[in-house]
Structure formats: C-alpha cells, structure tokens
Design a protein that fits this description.
Elements (H helix, E strand, L loop, with lengths): L2 H25 L4 H31 L1 H24 L17 H22 L8 H24 L4 H26 L4 H31 L2 H19 L1
Helix pairs in contact: 1-4, 1-5, 1-6, 2-3, 2-5, 2-7, 2-8, 3-4, 3-7, 4-5, 4-6, 4-7, 5-8
C-alpha cells in the first residue's frame, strides 16, 4: 500500500469514527454519563499520543525551536478560531448550566472540522520522507471522535434535524478528514525537516488546546470528579499502545 493511499485511509477512518458515533446516538439512547466518560478517556488518549508521538517526533525531526514555535502557534490559532466560531453565531459547545441549549448544527459541524483537520493532516505528514503512520495517534483520534459524534448527534436529533441532514453532515466531515490527511502528505512531503517539525507541533498544540477547551470541560459537566481518573486511564492506555507499536 502506497503512503498516499495509507494517509487517505487513515484520515477516512478517523472521520468515520464520527459517523459511527452518530449512528450509535441516533439508534441507541446512550446515557450522557457514558458519553462523558468516553470523552474523558479519549482526552487522556490524545494527550498521551501528542506527547509521546507528535511532539517527540517533531523535536527529533526538526529540533526544539521549530517544535516550540509550532506548538504555541497551533494553540493560538485554535483558540482564536474557536472563539470566532463561538461568538460568531455558530455555537458548538453545550452551555447546559447557563440554561442555553446545545450548539447549532452548523456550529457543531464547523467545530468538528476545526478539531479534525489538524488531527488528520498530521497523519499524512508523518508518512512523508519514508516515515511510518503512528498507530497510537490514529487510535487516539478514533477514540476521541466517537464521543464527539455521539454527543453532537444527540443534540442535533433533539433539535429536530432529520437523519439525512445529520448523516450527510458527518459523512461530509469524514471525507474532509480524508482529504486533510491526503493534503498533509501530498503538500508537505517536500518541506524541509524544520518545516515538518513545525507542522507536527502546530497540530499537537491545536489538539491540546482543543482538549482543554472542549473535551475535558464537556466531560466534567457530567462526570465531575471521576473525569481526572478516566483521563489518566486513557493516557495509560495510549502509552501502552505507543510502547507496543
């Protein structure tokens, strides 16, 4: 299998996790506590994967300085984009304690894209220059996408959205994730080592900002003090995958 095809399949699999989560939420009444626990576990998995795979590989590839600059840049860009989305009428977070409803359909879709593009683009980048796909990162993204698809679909369904709308939305995002991974491989293959290091660290910074801004707060609203322990379990599980792979 060529690296280009592998990149596309990895991105598509990551995006399809959202579709699978949507299918579960559409046909099964999954308790909010279960979704929150899976989200907390996914947050821990992602933290471990970006620490032991993305940042570590970025440092080894291009050095400390490009990695730190990319990491900070990714966090800044994500936070700014998320705030523009949140305050631009496309709410994607669940403000339940404040009495407001769930996020808008378009806001949820844009939020999923904002999360998914760096997660999948870095999978393509990792395959450039004869590199190997990080199984730990792929598993982390898949696990984290499942509860996002479940939680968002439950809100879309309760707001009266049709099955065609909901699944068309998630399938479209899955396709974009595949294209993002393909783009990461095709467009960045000839970039110097420092540039690839910057891109990988940029994705890691964006993912960590997303975890702290969205995943952990959403999980904590339901699971409360159990959140930290479940995040640690996810971290350990991903670390185990990293050691085996």
């Amino acid at each position: 299998m060529t690296p280009l095809v592998l990149a596309g399949l990895a991105g598509l699999l990551s995006g399809l996790a959202l579709v699978v989560g949507a299918l579960v939420a559409w046909f099964v009444n999954v308790p909010r506590s279960t979704v929150a626990l899976v989200m907390a576990f996914g947050a821990g998995v992602l933290i471990s994967a970006l620490a032991f795979d993305l940042v570590d590989e970025a440092t080894a590839e291009g050095g400390f300085v490009p990695t730190v600059i990319g990491f900070l840049a990714g966090a800044v860009v994500y936070v700014v984009a998320d705030q523009l989305l949140e305050h631009g009428g496309f709410r994607r977070k669940q403000h339940r304690h404040g009495g407001a409803g769930g996020g808008t359909g378009l806001g949820i879709a844009l939020g999923a894209l904002l999360d998914g593009v760096p997660e999948t683009a870095v999978q393509g980048v990792s395959l450039t220059g004869g590199g190997a796909l990080s199984i730990a990162v792929l598993v982390a993204v898949v696990i984290s996408n499942l509860p996002e698809g479940m939680s968002s679909t439950a809100d879309l369904k309760s707001s009266g959205r049709s099955a065609r709308y909901v699944f068309g939305l998630w399938i479209g995002i899955a396709v974009v994730c595949a294209l993002s991974a393909l783009g990461g491989y095709a467009l960045l293959g000839g970039v110097p080592a420092a540039g690839q290091s910057f891109v990988m660290a940029f994705a890691a910074g964006a993912i960590l900002a997303m975890i702290c801004d969205t995943m952990i707060p959403e999980a904590f609203r339901t699971t409360q003090t159990a959140t930290g322990f479940v995040v640690v379990l996810g971290f350990i599980a991903s670390y185990a995958v990293h050691q085996v792979a």
